[in-house]
């Protein structure tokens, strides 16, 4: 039985009940041909354009009420990179033009959250993307959820759809698509503009949805990547790798020391001159951090006056400026120490990465 897609509703009819666990979602529907789905979408869109205004339909959005189904809010998005042939009809949020509310599939509008679900209990953990319906899930994870809904404004990744033949896996957890990662296979072309081919398997893009973080998904993805290409001497992560992704790598390599010599940060096509050992870079960063900490400590000792306690120095400053508040009083003594620490931590974080591994809670 097919899940209760949120069908368009005439006037103000009540929304249908939510789908039960034994119902099918778009990814579960077998045998759907891309051409047939796109033809259905074009026919529906044409009908919306031609219908008189008296036949207005609405889509129920949980927690939002009803959204009017009208042509200006509908757009066709390309499903694949460098391919304008296959497109999806999406409904844009009238309050935020950068947000997609639903996708038109199998003659019905499906909310984004429902497109991300499955009723197939065998879909658990990391599964290879094989069917056209799974390609749609990958597209939604990459372009809509990551690119439009959960992407940090300071993130510098260019969000484009993957290619039709992209080697990808989706991580399923309890009926939801929670994450994905894609790989540039050894021997595959680097791009469509040259004859250069990847010289090693490269983990190219990776993303974990916010509500599924802090569950070790990033570690599972790295382990799966290494196990999938167990026969390879070297494996790559697409450059640049973010500081957060390096944290995931550090934890993974400390847990799996046998992989320390295999992981490299690489630029395409991955020649030895284009590789940096991830484990070596982690070790060097740790040594530099320790050296910096020692240097700062020594400077503090040199600046301190011998034989005088912190309390004495503080009292001395107060004596010199009896009517002036200490500059650090508001920052250190009035604020909660834990909050001060958190502010310092967050202000020092960096954001970059072609590998879309977000937040330390992926580990």
Q: Could you estimate the helical fraction of the residues in percent?
A: 25-40%
In N-to-C order, the SSE pattern is EHEEEEEEHEHEEEHEHEEHHHH
Distance N to C terminus: 37 Å
- How many E-type strands? 14
Beta-strand residue fraction: 15-25%
Biased composition (Basic residues): 342-354
Protein name: Family with sequence similarity 169 member B
Organism: Podarcis muralis (Wall lizard)
InterPro entries: FAM169 (IPR029625)
Task: Describe what you observe in this structure.
By secondary structure, this protein is α+β, with helices and mostly antiparallel strands. It has 2 domains: 1-119, no CATH class; 121-296 and 349-363, Aminopeptidase. The chain is 33% helix and 23% strand. The protein is built from 9 helices and 14 strands. It has helices at 34-50, 112-115, 132-150, 217-228, 243-255, 278-303, 310-320, 329-333, 337-347, and strands at residues 9-10, 57-61, 65-69, 74-80, 83-93, 96-105, 108-111, 125-128, 167-173, 176-184, 202-208, 235-238, 263-266, 275-277. The chain has a 7-stranded mixed beta sheet with strand order 8-9-10-11-12-13-14, sandwiched between helices. Helix 4 crosses helix 5. The longest helix is centred in the C-terminal third of the chain and has 26 residues, at 278-303. The radius of gyration is 26 Å and the shape is elongated. The two termini are 37 Å apart. This is Family with sequence similarity 169 member B. InterPro entries: FAM169.
